[in-house]
Amino acid sequence: MSLTIAGHTFSSRLFTGTGKYANQEQMIASILASGSEMTTLSLRRMDLKSGSDNILKPLQQLGVKLLPNTSGARDAKEAIYAAQLAQEALETNWVKVEIHPDPRYLMPDPIETLKAVEELVRLGFVVMPYIHADPVLCKRLEEVGAQCVMPLGAPIGSNQGLASKPFLDIIIEQSNVPVIVDAGIGAPSHAAAALEAGADAVLVNTAMAVASHTEAMGKAFKLAVEAGRMAYESGTGKVQQTAEASSPFTEFLKELV
Amino acid sequence: MQLYVNDEPVQFEHSTLLALLENYVSAEQRVAVAVNQQVVPRSMWSECVLKDNDRIDIFESIAGG
After folding, report:
1. CB contact, 8 Å: A6 with chain B?
2. Which of A64, A77, A104, A246 is the most buried (most CB within 10 A)?
3. How confident is the model at residue A47 (pLDDT cuts 50, 70, 90)?
4. Contact A88/A108 with Cβ under 8 angstroms?
5. Contact by Cβ (8 Å): A95, A67
6. Which residues of A66-95 are buried (b: 16+ CB within 10 A; e: fewer)?
7. Average pLDDT for residues A202-225, to the nearest whole number?
8. Which Pfam families match (chain B) (predicted)?
9. Domains recognised in chain A with CATH numbers
10. pLDDT of residue A36
11. For chain B, domain boundaries
């Protein structure tokens, strides 16, 4: 059941994010209930007047692996700078590369992402790129040494689910590195569907953070991801146009005549 | 000399990055610091000599997906 990325083994296939929670208590309770073993963080210039919001301590106490992202980076150069800063601030060589020059749709820039991943791999980072569900790009990223690919299901925070499903299926079929569906997952059923389809993991943030009951939603995602993976490993049946009886009722009907 | 810390103009008379950061960062705080957009590892703060008009940026972790 476990998933290994760059030699690190995860027993949970649910990765989480720390954004958008109303407060730290809800964030911690939700991540704890979800069973997630890795959660994302961002980096910002410190506000010298108001001081630090000190998010690290409770997360460290929780014992989850911290995955810095390069959110805010608009090109490869900025993403590499962000990764180097994150490495220093969080003492990790893991980084989720996300480069979105356009704040309206937050679409990841494929060209800058490929450039950044190539360079970060060369610098010794474990790179997890957030990208569009583009099967060609996924192969290119794999070739330059990305440790996994993180194609989107739908625009970030949109809760639209697996809008990119036909392309995710191709990516999953072709990939030699773990496929983590990131962005757009709005409900546990979306997460289950991704795992059933053979995705190695999902990354969920908004759907957990904005729920009315964040802790229960964390648990719901945990169960959905486990169910989806179990179904995948058990082998789901083939989809077909015609009906096929689940009970051998034909014999019984004959006896009635 | 004139320095800029997270874009704020600052007058500072000592020479090392470590001395400057003592005003902003506590010993246990996990931050990343760059001088003129070059990351300076914590172990090098005491050796990093600042010069006039250097731009020092201090970063910290915040919540994010």
Report:
1. no
2. A64
3. confident
4. no
5. yes
6. bbbbbbbbeebebbbbbbbbbbbbbebebb
7. 97
8. ThiS (PF02597)
9. 3-235 (3.20.20.70)
10. 98
11. 2-60
B32 touches chain A (CB under 8 A): yes
For the question of residue A219 being annotated catalytic, the response is no
Q: Is B1 on the interface with A (CB under 8 A)?
A: no
Residue B15 clears pLDDT 80, i.e. is over it: yes
Question: What DSSP state is assigned to residue B40?
Answer: -
Closest Cα in chain B to A24: B63
| Cβ contact B8–A69 (<8 Å) | no
The pLDDT value recorded for residue B27 is 82
Q: Alpha-carbon distance B46 to A181, whole Å?
A: 43
Could you report the per-residue pLDDT of B52-63, keeping only the tens digit for each? 999 999 999 998
Nearest CA in chain A to B37: A81
Strands A14-17 and A126-131 come out as unpaired
The shortest CB-CB distance from A19 to any of B57, B59, B65 is to B65
- CA–CA separation, B33 vs A111, rounded Å? 28
What is the distance in angstroms between the CA of the first residue and the CA of the last residue of chain B?
39
Q: What is the DSSP letter of A237?
A: P
Task: Flag whether residue B44 sits within 8 Å of chain A, measured between CB atoms.
Answer: no
Contact B58 A46 (CB under 8 A): yes
What is the least distance, in Å, from the CA of B20 to any CA of chain A? Answer: 13
Model confidence, pTM: 0.91
Q: How many CB atoms within 10 Å of residue B23?
A: 11
- Fold of the CATH domain B2-60: Ubiquitin-like (UB roll) (3.10.20)
Which residue shows structure tokens 């179904």? A231
Structure tokens of A167?
Answer: 């392309």
